[in-house]
Specification:
By secondary structure, the protein is of the alpha/beta class. The chain has 13 helices and 19 strands. Helix 1 packs parallel to helix 2, helix 1 packs across helix 8 and helix 9 crosses helix 13.
Length: 418
């Protein structure tokens, strides 16, 4: 495989020498393109010795080979590590002032950035906007690791280990390995190169300008799923209804309020997604009439009667659109259930799975002191394929990790990359 390895001008450049060795020892032909700043940390001689190829970052070297066009065209994979704040900004704005940025503009295959910088630089709104821009174009931008940085500071911004970058990079080209979630053979980034759309939070259905019908959803589980999918290498689209927690960084967010708005946003965002997860708590009903003014409480007048109409079944509609289009998309639903005299939680959930037609259904038993607004959760994952139910419990982040691992395994089994 022909790989272009771009090296940014950060102190973490020395770790990229180990990444280069992993590529070359696996038999790949690697062309290294360091920025001028990168050569102040690791010299050209090192890159040439380890790659076995000539190294340059000038568009004026070997002009007859037209390298500024050829390298991007011919590369099966482009990896940039460390991707500094400056390099991410130049790539996002389409600058082409050296050989590396020219090559990125000419890329015909997958591109992966492994960022490394100080925490404040990574979290700055400008950097996050540049990352979102790149991801929206189909580029994979890994989340930096957390740990010791330059000097005594510590936090997110550390370059992921070379082995992790190597794993994520090859996943973009070769797809996922068929391994059980959590096993030593499982990929470090099981959703690398995938696009995941997730809904979160609770919808609010207006009754008048002041009042609404709502539910107890905090959005915590949906946000945890978005973070887990992002950390698994996916490009994440989060359709957020009312949430009591902030949306995570590194994901595209669409804010909605009502079930009808959520429906439109999900149908739009689901197009082109590999995975769709309906984790939002969607109101089953909405007021038939919405008053333009606040409904008053008046003595001598009859109390108002609120008529309700049914909201659309968004999960079922997503499955219907998927099936009609014949696309290879995994659809995952969430079911907040309570048992009663006619059946228990899993019996109702099994009926819902059959009715909705989704591939996986994540079921939790809800109540006034369960799930909604809490930091912990306990779920059972049901499969339309009929596999044994899978249980998960712990913090909502623990549960999200299990769900995302299961989704990665399902994708590799049912919808492998070609």
């Amino acid at each position: 495989m022909r790989i272009v390895l771009g090296v940014g001008g950060g102190i973490a450049a020395y770790k990229v020498a180990s990444l280069l060795r992993l590529f070359t020892e696996a038999g790949h032909n690697v062309t290294v393109i360091p920025t001028d700043a990168a050569t102040r940390f690791v010299g050209v001689a090192t890159w040439e010795a380890l790659s076995g190829n000539t190294v340059s970052n000038s568009v004026f070297d070997d002009v007859h080979l037209v390298n500024h066009v050829r390298l991007g065209h011919e590369a099966d994979l482009i990896v940039v590590a460390p991707a500094t704040a400056d390099l991410l900004a130049r790539a996002a704005t389409g600058q082409a002032d050296d050989l590396l940025t020219n090559t990125l503009l000419m890329a015909g295959g997958p591109v992966l950035f492994a960022p490394a910088m100080h925490t404040e630089m990574w979290q700055h709104a400008a950097t996050q906007a540049n990352v979102e821009t790149l991801r929206s174009r189909g580029v994979t931008v890994l989340e930096p690791a957390s740990g010791r940085l330059t000097g005594s500071d510590s936090g997110p911004g550390r370059l992921p280990e070379p082995e992790a970058i190597y794993e994520a990079a090859l996943a973009l080209v070769h797809g996922l390995r068929d391994a059980a979630p959590g096993s030593p053979e499982a990929p470090l980034f099981p959703l690398a190169g995938r696009t995941v759309t997730i809904s979160a939070g609770g919808t609010r259905e207006p009754l008048d300008p002041v009042r609404f019908l709502g539910n107890r959803s905090s959005g915590k589980q949906g946000v945890a799923l978005a973070e887990a999918a992002r950390d698994a290498g996916a490009s994440v689209r989060l359709v957020a209804a009312h949430m009591e927690v902030p949306a995570p960084s590194g994901v595209d967010v669409v804010s909605v309020e009502t079930a009808l708005q959520l429906r439109d946003a999900m149908l739009s965002a689901a197009a082109g997604s590999d995975v769709v997860i309906m984790a939002a708590a969607v109101a089953d009903f909405r007021p038939a009439d919405v008053s333009g003014t606040k409904i008053k409480k008046r003595d001598g007048h009859a109390d108002p009667v609120v008529s309700l109409v049914r909201n659309p079944d968004i999960l079922h509609e997503l499955v219907t659109v998927r099936d009609a289009g014949g696309t290879s998309q995994l659809v995952v639903g969430f079911a907040a259930e309570t048992g009663d005299a006619h059946g228990d939680v899993l019996e109702y959930a099994a009926e819902k799975l059959k009715r909705k037609g989704c591939d996986l259904l994540v079921v939790n038993h809800v109540g006034s002191d369960k799930v909604f607004g809490q930091d912990h959760n306990s779920v059972v994952i049901l499969s339309r394929a009929g596999s044994e139910p899978q249980s998960a419990s712990g913090t909502k982040h623990d549960v999200a990790a299990v769900v995302i691992d299961r989704i990665g395994a399902e994708l590799s089994r049912v919808f492998p990359r070609t």
